[in-house]
C-alpha cells in the first residue's frame, strides 16, 4: 500500500510527463514482476502509470491552441455556486459546446458587470477564451496547478450572453438556499454563514481573509474535514449516548447504526457543500474511520488513514497538486500520532491544548515546504475559535438553515450564529493586531528535513530518548535565505504581475521596488503577488518605493505593499495624483544616490502632458553594467530624454509602456543600444502589447527579449554581465510552455 501511494504521489514532482508509450508500458512491466513476488515495485509502477494517465487526460482536455485568445459563441450549464462580486461574477460552465471546435469539459469564466447568474442555468455566451495560464513568481499561488487539479481546461471573459433556461436541479436549490442565507439578518456575517453551511466563500471580504490568515483560522470558515467530522461525531455520539442511557432499542445493535448515521450525516453535509474535492476527501476519511470503528479496530488506526489516502489518490491523482491535500492528511496524521497509544484519559482542556500544540509544531515544516504563511498567534486563536465555531456556531447555523421554512425560528438561530461570529471576528482582530502572519523565506531541502525531524521528535511522548534534541533540529528556521549581492552588484527581479509592472532592485544592504502592480475589485497584485514574493526573497523592508506614475497597473498595489512592508520613502512621477495615505514625494530629474557601490539616478520630463509621459525613469549602474527602467514613457518623452544630455547607454532596458506602438522609437533604441530587454505584460492582453513593429525594432538591434508571459518572473545579476533567468525555466508538467 505504501508503494502504491508512493507511485501515485510521484506525479507531484514531475518536470514533464513521460511519453505515452512509456507510462502505458509500465503496468505491463508491473504484471511481469508479480510472479517474482516483487509486489512493492509492481504496485509502485501501477500507481505511477495511473497518475500519469490521469494527468495526460487532464492536459489533453485543455483548450486547443488555435482557439487561444479567440471570442466564440458557446452554450453550457452553470455549475457550482457563482462567486458574486461587486463588479465581476466568476463561475464555472460545464458541457460547453461551440460550432467552432471541441471545447474543454469545464470552463472558468468571469463576467465583468454581468447579471447575477444562478447555478443550474443554461446560457448562450460570447466568451474570449484562454488556455490555462497563471503567474509564476518566487512565491505565489500556483494558479495553473489549481486549474489542472480542478480539471478546468480554459478560462475566459464573457462579452455578452443570453439565458436559455432557468435554474433547476440540486444546484439550483443550493443557489436558492444561499440567497436566503445571504438575505438573513445575521449581524453582517451572512457571508460567513454561507461559507460554513454551503462552502461558498465568496461572501467573505478581503479583510476577512486577511484576518483569518493572520490568525491561522482559515480552516474554520471554509467547509473542511473538521466541520464534516464534527457533524458525523455528533450523530454518532447521539446514538452512543442513547445506548449508554439504555434508551436505544435492544434488538437493534447501536454501533452499526451509529456508524451508518454518522456517515449519512457526513454525506448530507458534503452534498450541501457541493461535494468539491476537499469535501469528498473528508467524506472518504470519515467513512473509513467509521468502518474501522465498527469492524476493524484490531488492525490499528494507521491503516484506515492509509486506505483513505489511497482511495483519494486512486479516484483523483491530481489531488496531490493542491496544498489542502497535504495539510488535511498531515493534520489527521499528527492527531493520530498525538493521541494514539497514550495511557489514561486527558481532560478536555488538555486535549484541546495538546491538539493545537501538535498542529502548530507538526504542520510547521509542511507550511514552510508549501510556501504558506505561518501564524505565530494561530495556537492561541484556534484554542478560542475551534470550540467557538465547532460547538456553537456550526450547530446553530445548520439548525437555522434547516428551520428556515419555520417562521422566525430559523432566522432567529441564524441571527444568533451571526452574532457569535461577529464577536469571534472582533476577538481575532485583537489577536491579529498583536501578531500577524509571518511568511518566511524559502528554506533549502536539508533545512526542511531537519525541521521536520525536530518537530516529529518534539511530538513524541515524554519518555522517548533524545526528545529534547528536537529543539536543536529546529534551528535551521533561523537560516538566512540566499546570500545577498556582493558590493558593486545588484539583484534585479522583474516580477510576473500580468498587465502591470513591479521590479525589485536589491543591493547588499538596501532594497528598492519600482512600481507595485495593479489592483482590481477582487484581486490586488500588491497583496497577492508582490508582498509574498518580496518576503520569499527575504526582503523585510524597503528603502524606497518608487512609483513611476499613478496609473493603476503601476501604482494600484502600492497600498497593499506598504501594509505588508515598511518603506522608508515613497517617490513618484505623479505624486499629487496618488492617494494621500501613500505620502509620496515628487520624483525629479537629477536625483542620484549610491547604495553598496551601486549607483542610482532618476529623470522625469518636466513638460510632461500626460501621466505616461510623467513617468519617473530610473537608471541603475553596478560595476559598469546598466539597467534603465522607463515606466510608461512614450516617443515624445523618449525624445525629451534623448535631448537631456544624459548618457543613456544601457545593457538592460525595460521596454517602455509594455511594448506599446507609441513607445520604443528607433532613435531611442539606437541611443540606448541594449543587449537585452524586459517586457512586463499580461498574456493576450486587450491592448495588443507588445506591438509587432516594436518587437521587430528590438530584434533588429539585436536585443534578447525576456517576456514575463514566456519566462515568468525574471532574475538578473546586475554587475555580473550574465544572462537573465526566468522562473518558467523550472519545469513543471502542468505549466503552459
TrEMBL record:
<dbReference type="Pfam" id="PF00753">
    <property type="entry name" value="Lactamase_B"/>
</dbReference>
<feature type="transmembrane region" description="Helical">
    <location>
        <begin position="227"/>
        <end position="247"/>
    </location>
</feature>
<dbReference type="InterPro" id="IPR001279">
    <property type="entry name" value="Metallo-B-lactamas"/>
</dbReference>
<dbReference type="InterPro" id="IPR052159">
    <property type="entry name" value="Competence_DNA_uptake"/>
</dbReference>
<dbReference type="InterPro" id="IPR004797">
    <property type="entry name" value="Competence_ComEC/Rec2"/>
</dbReference>
<feature type="transmembrane region" description="Helical">
    <location>
        <begin position="388"/>
        <end position="406"/>
    </location>
</feature>
<dbReference type="Pfam" id="PF13567">
    <property type="entry name" value="DUF4131"/>
</dbReference>
<dbReference type="Pfam" id="PF03772">
    <property type="entry name" value="Competence"/>
</dbReference>
<dbReference type="InterPro" id="IPR025405">
    <property type="entry name" value="DUF4131"/>
</dbReference>
<feature type="transmembrane region" description="Helical">
    <location>
        <begin position="445"/>
        <end position="464"/>
    </location>
</feature>
<dbReference type="InterPro" id="IPR036866">
    <property type="entry name" value="RibonucZ/Hydroxyglut_hydro"/>
</dbReference>
<keyword id="KW-1003">Cell membrane</keyword>
<feature type="transmembrane region" description="Helical">
    <location>
        <begin position="325"/>
        <end position="345"/>
    </location>
</feature>
<feature type="transmembrane region" description="Helical">
    <location>
        <begin position="357"/>
        <end position="376"/>
    </location>
</feature>
<feature type="transmembrane region" description="Helical">
    <location>
        <begin position="413"/>
        <end position="433"/>
    </location>
</feature>
<keyword id="KW-0472">Membrane</keyword>
<dbReference type="InterPro" id="IPR004477">
    <property type="entry name" value="ComEC_N"/>
</dbReference>
<feature type="transmembrane region" description="Helical">
    <location>
        <begin position="40"/>
        <end position="59"/>
    </location>
</feature>
<feature type="transmembrane region" description="Helical">
    <location>
        <begin position="301"/>
        <end position="319"/>
    </location>
</feature>
<protein>
    <submittedName>
        <fullName>DNA internalization-related competence protein ComEC/Rec2</fullName>
    </submittedName>
</protein>
<keyword id="KW-0812">Transmembrane</keyword>
<feature type="transmembrane region" description="Helical">
    <location>
        <begin position="254"/>
        <end position="272"/>
    </location>
</feature>
<dbReference type="InterPro" id="IPR035681">
    <property type="entry name" value="ComA-like_MBL"/>
</dbReference>
<feature type="domain" description="Metallo-beta-lactamase">
    <location>
        <begin position="499"/>
        <end position="683"/>
    </location>
</feature>
<keyword id="KW-1133">Transmembrane helix</keyword>
Amino acid at each position: 500500500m505504501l508503494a502504491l501511494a508512493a507511485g501515485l504521489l510521484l506525479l507531484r514532482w514531475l518536470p514533464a510527463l513521460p511519453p505515452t508509450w512509456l507510462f502505458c508500458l509500465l503496468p505491463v512491466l508491473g504484471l511481469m514482476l508479480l510472479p517474482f513476488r516483487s509486489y512493492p515495485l509492481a504496485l509502485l509502477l501501477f500507481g505511477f502509470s495511473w497518475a500519469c494517465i490521469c494527468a495526460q487526460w487532464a492536459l489533453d482536455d485543455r483548450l486547443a491552441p488555435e482557439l487561444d485568445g479567440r471570442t466564440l459563441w458557446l452554450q453550457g450549464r452553470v455549475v457550482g455556486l457563482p462567486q458574486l462580486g461587486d463588479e465581476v461574477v466568476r463561475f464555472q460552465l460545464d458541457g460547453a459546446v461551440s460550432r467552432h471546435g471541441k471545447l474543454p469539459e469545464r470552463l472558468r469564466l468571469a463576467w465583468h458587470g454581468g447579471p447575477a447568474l444562478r447555478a443550474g442555468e443554461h446560457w448562450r455566451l460570447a466568451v474570449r477564451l484562454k488556455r490555462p495560464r497563471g503567474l509564476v513568481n518566487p512565491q505565489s499561488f500556483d494558479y495553473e496547478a489549481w486549474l489542472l487539479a480542478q480539471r478546468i481546461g480554459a478560462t475566459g471573459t464573457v462579452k455578452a450572453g443570453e439565458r436559455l433556461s432557468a435554474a433547476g436541479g440540486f444546484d439550483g436549490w443550493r443557489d436558492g438556499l444561499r440567497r436566503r442565507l445571504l438575505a438573513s439578518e445575521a449581524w453582517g456575517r451572512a457571508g460567513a454563514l454561507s461559507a460554513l453551511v454551503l462552502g461558498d466563500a465568496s461572501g467573505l471580504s478581503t479583510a476577512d481573509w486577511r484576518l483569518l490568515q493572520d490568525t491561522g483560522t482559515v480552516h474554520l470558515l471554509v467547509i473542511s474535514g473538521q466541520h464534516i467530522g464534527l457533524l458525523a461525531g455528533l450523530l454518532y455520539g447521539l446514538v452512543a449516548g442513547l445506548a449508554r442511557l439504555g434508551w436505544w432499542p435492544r434488538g437493534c445493535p447501536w454501533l452499526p447504526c451509529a456508524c451508518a448515521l454518522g456517515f449519512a450525516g457526513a454525506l448530507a453535509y458534503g452534498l450541501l457543500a457541493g461535494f468539491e474535492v476537499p469535501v469528498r476527501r473528508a467524506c472518504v476519511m470519515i467513512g473509513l474511520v467509521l468502518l474501522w470503528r465498527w469492524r476493524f479496530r484490531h488492525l490499528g488506526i494507521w491503516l484506515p488513514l492509509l486506505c483513505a489516502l489511497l482511495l483519494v489518490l486512486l479516484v483523483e491523482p491530481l489531488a496531490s497538486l493542491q496544498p489542502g491535500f497535504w495539510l488535511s492528511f498531515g493534520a489527521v496524521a499528527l492527531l493520530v500520532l498525538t493521541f494514539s497509544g497514550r495511557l489514561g484519559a486527558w481532560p478536555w482542556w488538555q486535549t484541546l491544548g495538546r491538539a493545537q500544540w501538535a498542529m502548530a509544531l507538526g504542520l510547521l515544516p509542511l507550511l514552510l515546504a508549501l510556501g504558506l504563511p505561518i501564524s505565530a498567534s494561530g495556537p492561541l486563536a484556534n484554542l478560542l475559535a475551534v470550540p467557538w465555531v465547532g460547538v456553537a456556531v456550526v450547530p446553530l447555523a445548520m439548525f437555522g438553515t434547516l428551520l428556515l421554512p419555520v417562521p422566525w425560528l430559523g432566522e432567529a438561530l441564524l441571527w444568533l450564529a451571526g452574532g457569535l461570529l461577529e464577536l469571534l471576528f472582533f476577538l481575532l482582530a485583537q489577536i491579529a493586531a498583536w501578531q500577524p502572519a509571518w511568511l518566511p523565506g524559502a528554506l533549502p531541502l536539508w533545512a526542511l528535513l531537519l525541521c521536520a525531524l525536530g518537530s516529529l521528535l518534539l511530538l513524541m511522548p515524554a519518555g522517548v530518548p533524545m526528545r529534547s534534541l528536537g529543539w536543536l533540529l529546529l534551528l535551521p528556521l533561523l537560516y538566512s535565505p540566499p546570500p545577498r549581492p556582493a558590493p558593486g552588484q545588484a539583484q534585479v527581479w522583474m516580477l510576473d504581475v500580468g498587465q502591470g509592472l513591479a521590479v525589485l532592485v536589491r543591493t547588499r544592504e538596501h532594497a528598492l521596488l519600482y512600481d507595485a502592480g495593479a489592483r482590481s475589485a477582487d484581486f490586488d497584485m500588491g497583496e497577492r503577488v508582490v508582498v509574498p514574493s518580496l518576503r520569499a526573497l527575504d526582503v523585510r523592508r524597503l528603502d524606497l518605493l518608487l512609483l513611476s506614475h499613478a496609473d493603476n497597473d503601476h501604482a494600484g498595489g502600492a497600498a497593499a505593499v506598504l501594509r505588508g512592508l515598511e518603506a522608508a520613502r515613497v517617490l513618484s512621477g505623479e505624486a499629487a495624483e496618488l492617494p494621500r495615505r501613500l505620502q509620496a514625494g515628487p520624483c525629479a530629474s537629477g536625483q542620484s544616490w549610491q547604495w553598496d557601490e551601486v549607483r542610482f539616478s532618476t529623470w522625469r520630463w518636466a513638460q510632461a502632458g500626460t501621466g505616461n509621459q510623467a513617468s519617473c525613469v530610473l537608471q541603475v549602474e553596478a560595476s559598469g553594467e546598466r539597467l534603465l527602467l522607463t515606466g510608461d514613457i512614450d516617443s515624445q518623452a523618449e525624445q525629451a530624454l534623448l535631448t537631456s544630455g544624459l548618457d543613456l547607454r544601457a545593457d538592460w532596458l525595460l521596454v517602455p509602456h509594455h511594448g506599446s506602438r507609441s513607445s520604443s522609437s528607433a532613435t531611442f533604441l539606437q541611443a540606448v543600444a541594449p543587449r537585452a530587454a524586459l517586457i512586463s505584460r499580461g498574456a493576450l492582453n486587450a491592448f495588443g502589447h507588445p506591438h509587432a513593429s516594436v518587437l521587430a525594432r528590438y530584434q533588429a538591434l539585436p536585443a534578447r527579449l525576456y517576456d514575463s508571459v514566456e519566462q515568468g518572473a525574471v532574475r538578473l545579476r546586475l554587475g555580473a554581465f550574465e544572462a537573465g533567468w526566468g522562473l518558467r525555466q523550472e519545469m513543471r508538467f502542468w505549466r503552459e510552455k
